[in-house]
Design a protein that fits this description.
The chain is α/β, with parallel strands linked by helices and 573 residues long. The protein contains 20 helices and 21 strands. 47% of the residues lie in helices and 17% in strands.
Length: 573
């Protein structure tokens, strides 16, 4: 049994390529590939950089000041690395100036090399080997060694400081290249970093305790004498995106069974006097709280840095000026002072939205400022839903309207939709700190526009060719041009319209034909009918058919004429 005609028609229409199916296909493609194409995800990160630049700089709060080892400091204090007595003196000056917190974006990972200590140590060994037992000599050598030990002097300055001191270190993220380390060495390093651990962790469920977080192999911590001199330390690791830009900073790193805090969080812990709390849910890190300060993170515990501006957005004060007491004490009073290097060649260069050469020290300052002033950039809970709705809206809106518009209005509408969406994303980014996906909806819109424009061009060209071939023999060129311009005038099934019919034949044609040979008669008819056809067409009439010597034509179809009767009359006379 043959299938029902309506069913057959349904499937033909279902699989027929037209503007609607193209649009729906592109929208579905956008939904399926959403956040699954690495190249487009990378482009999205670039648009985030552009949004920062479009927003411009935002003045930071006054709480953070940077004490920098810059070119001026190297010129006056000598080449890097400095003896730790300089940092000890700086701590005393900042403490006396009323600084609240001093945080070091510098690792003191090895003992300070001091030749005097080595000489005294050799003298002690010599005295012991000679069997000399003199208490006064031993006490003198011990005192001389203590006064020459820069690490001990630095540790003493940290302990005596009225400002709370936070030491920095970094994590070795994998054991690669560290196979030579024994278990005891790793244990010592982990113990030295104990002051960086989160002491308050809240799991929302048993499953949350097994969640996967950023995992480190071991800390490369400060030496024991310094680690034991303060209650605060934090790592300064940063993990750039694929393009090398630093847009995220991890606020939680797991090492063995403990969770560790970064330098920025530990500086805020010291500043507020409140221990940070990590809230861990089944999907990952939910939040980090420092007293009343809540910090939203992604599931990996990363915060997206809301950069306040380019380099030196925060005050930069040369360490040598601090050591020479050239800076008014009130500059540091009650502030967080971050200490680090910015001199070319010795500092940690990073790529940020505002600059390709940006001191890592200032990234910590941005994070601290973000948390203190609760000014965050984040992907809201509804962001993914918004992105998908934007994909559907952009694709379907253009798909519905573009086939009904001419080329220039269609282009204007596509550009207008894209510009409106970009401005909306920029507004939400600048004023609400909401990061919404810009690339995927824009790609869907552009792809829809290009595909529909190409489809429209190909179908219209085919339609124009068909109309021209079908009607150019019977219609005036101007009428054919109107049909090509407005093919909707060709309506199947006809329509009610007033037209003027035109009938014309040759008077006494029978008598004339009897007096001519067949060849002569054909030549006469060809000449007559050609001339009459040109007359009809010149008045925008349509030749219906020839019957012998008669011409049947009409005026007012397929194109509408205001005066079909007048044109027929003019054609007749």
């Amino acid at each position: 049994m043959a299938p029902d005609l309506s069913v057959r028609t349904f499937f033909k229409r279902l699989f027929r390529i037209n503007a609607a199916t193209i649009t729906i296909g592109i929208v579905l493609l956008g939904i399926v590939t959403y956040q699954r194409i690495p190249f487009l995800d990378l482009m999205e990160l670039k648009t985030v950089d552009l949004r920062f630049i479009s927003r411009g700089a935002v003045p930071p709060g006054p709480e953070v000041v940077l004490a920098v080892v810059d070119e001026k400091s190297l010129e006056e204090q000598g080449k890097w690395v400095w003896p730790r007595t300089k940092f000890a003196e700086m701590i005393r000056i900042l403490s006396d100036s009323g600084a609240n917190v001093i945080a070091f974006d510098v690792g003191f990972l090895e003992a300070d090399q001091n030749s005097i200590v080595e000489v005294v140590t050799r003298l002690e060994n010599l005295v012991d080997s000679l069997g000399i037992d003199n208490e006064k000599l031993g006490a003198y050598l011990e005192q001389a060694k203590y006064r020459a030990d820069n690490d001990l002097l630095f540790a003493e300055a940290i302990k005596e400081s009225k400002a709370k001191v936070v030491l920095g270190y970094f994590f070795q993220m994998s054991p690669e290249g560290l196979e030579y380390l024994d278990e005891n060495t790793v244990k010592v390093q982990i113990d030295n970093a104990r002051t960086s651990r989160y002491s308050m962790i809240r799991y929302t469920s048993d499953q949350a305790q097994r969640v996967q977080l950023v995992q480190a192999f071991m800390p490369q911590s400060n030496i024991g004498v310094l680690s034991g001199s303060t209650r605060y330390s934090g790592y300064f690791n940063m993990f750039p995106d694929r393009d090398g830009g630093v847009r995220w900073v991890p606020l939680v790193v797991r090492c063995q069974e403990h969770l560790y805090a970064p330098l920025s969080v530990q500086a805020l812990r010291a500043y507020t006097g409140r221990s940070p709390t990590v809230v861990v849910a089944e999907y990952g890190i939910q939040e980090i709280r420092i007293g009343q300060l809540g910090t939203p993170t992604d599931e990996d515990g990363r915060i997206m840095v809301n950069y306040r501006g380019g380099e030196k957005t925060f005050p930069h004060i040369s360490v040598t000026d601090i050591l020479h007491r050239r800076i008014p004490p009130e500059t540091f009073k009650d502030n967080i002072v971050l200490v680090g290097a910015t001199a070319i060649g010795i500092y940690d260069m990073r790529v940020t939205p505002f600059s390709s050469i940006y001191p890592g020290l200032e990234i910590h300052a941005n994070v601290i400022d973000n948390i203190l002033h609760q000014s965050f950039l984040q992907r809201p809970n509804w962001a993914s839903l918004f992105d998908l709705v934007a994909i559907v809206f952009m694709g379907l809106s253009l798909g519905l309207l573009l086939p009904r518009l001419r080329a220039l209005p269609g282009m204007a509408m596509a550009i207008g939709l894209l510009a409106t969406y970009i401005l909306l994303c920029q507004y939400l980014f600048s004023h609400l700190g909401a990061w919404l996906n810009l690339v995927y909806p824009a790609v869907v819109l552009i792809l829809t526009y290009v595909c529909l424009t190409v489809y429209k061009y190909l179908t219209e060209e085919r339609q124009k060719k068909f109309i021209k071939n079908a009607f150019s023999t019977y219609l005036a060129p101007s009428v054919v041009a109107q049909l090509i311009k407005s093919p909707e005038k060709l309506v199947l099934g006809g329509e009610d319209r007033v037209i003027t019919a035109f009938f014309s034949d040759v008077q006494n044609f029978t008598s004339i034909s009897e007096s001519l040979t067949p060849r002569e008669l054909v030549e006469l008819l060809n000449e007559f009918l050609t001339e009459m056809t040109d007359v009809v067409l010149s008045h925008e009439g349509t030749v219906d058919k020839f019957e012998g010597d008669a011409i049947i034509a009409f005026f007012g179809a397929p194109t509408i004429l205001k005066d079909p009767a007048l044109r027929a009359w003019q054609g007749l006379y």
